[in-house]
Write a structure and sequence with these properties.
The chain is built from 7 helices and 13 strands. Helix 1 packs across helix 3 (about 45-60). The protein is an alpha+beta fold. Helix content is about 25%, strand content about 30%. Strands 1, 2, 3, 5, 6, 7, 10 and 11 form an 8-stranded mixed β-sheet that branches. It has a 5-stranded mixed β-sheet with strand order 4-13-12-8-9, with no helix packed on it.
Length: about 270
């Protein structure tokens, strides 16, 4: 069933998107979660939700942040059913969201974090023209990398609908990339197996097939969708293609490690300052 607006399209005014963006922006700055924004933009109005995300993106760029890629969310059918949608969503990756494996992640940067293991793609070519089918998208990939996405929500208690999470930059937080880089000639994303542990205890497992059937399907969807929104994918950008298994909450200082067959491991250490 296609996503439809919970509000009359004309009812979501520029003022409403401005107020929603201000609410989310204040939560990000103060590190104090806010109320959902669906009272302003609706629970499932795609255009209104992305309008809020775009407003926040423009503000971040104006403040000096650099866009380094995108993340794809809602690639799991179970999570889509939970939010009552039939498609993924996307958010923007900024330069200050990336942490190196050897740099501890301060929990003070986050509000209510959860972590998930993913396959990241680094692009060698723009994805702005042409059919943007799987063959073209595959050819545009420079390499694949094991990744941890630290998702976060500015909305209190993760009380989110589709509209809330999209407006909130698809609940993006931070991300960490592994050290190994592999071309798609030597690595098959759909057959990859993942295991993720927190302090040595396994908390999640899954495979490439859990990500829209194939992480390259997710990448092709993103390429077409971002072009429609006027911000196509560019060479050098990083794409987090979606979770390979269930996410796990981070409740305090911890070390998270994910192993992905063919890509090696990736680790993030969370500390309390």
């Amino acid at each position: 069933m296609p996503i439809s607006s919970g509000l009359d399209r004309g009812a979501v005014t520029a003022d409403a998107t401005t107020i929603a963006a201000a609410r989310l922006g204040a939560a990000a700055r103060t590190r104090i979660p806010c109320a959902p924004v669906r009272d302003l933009i609706g629970a499932d109005d795609v255009a209104a939700a992305y309008a809020v995300q775009e407003r926040l993106t423009v503000e971040r760029i104006a403040d000096g942040a650099e866009v380094v890629g995108r993340k794809i969310g809602l690639t799991s059918p179970a999570v889509q059913r939970q939010l009552g949608v039939d498609q993924p969503d996307f958010g923007v990756l900024f330069d200050d969201m990336r942490y190196r494996q050897d740099t501890p992640v301060p929990l003070s940067r986050l509000l209510q974090p959860k972590v998930e293991a993913e396959i990241a793609f680094v692009l060698a070519q723009d994805l702005a023209d042409g059919p943007l089918d799987e063959r073209q998208v595959r050819g545009a990939v420079d390499c694949a990398v094991a990744a941890l996405e630290i998702v976060d929500s500015r909305i209190a208690g993760w009380d989110i609908t589709f509209g809330d999470t999209v407006a909130d930059n698809a609940s993006s937080g931070l991300f960490v990339l592994g050290a190994e880089r592999h071309t798609l000639d030597s690595f098959d994303p759909v057959s990859a197996q993942m295991r993720m542990s927190i302090d040595g205890v396994e908390v999640s497992a899954g495979s490439g097939a859990a990500c829209l059937g194939d992480p390259l399907h997710a990448l092709a969807w993103l390429a077409r969708t971002t072009r429609e929104f006027g911000r196509p994918l560019r060479a050098g950008q990083i794409v987090l293609s979606g979770a390979l298994g269930p996410m796990a909450p981070i409740d305090g200082p911890a070390t998270v490690t994910a192993d992905i067959t063919g890509l090696g491991s990736v680790t993030a250490t969370f500390i309390q300052e």
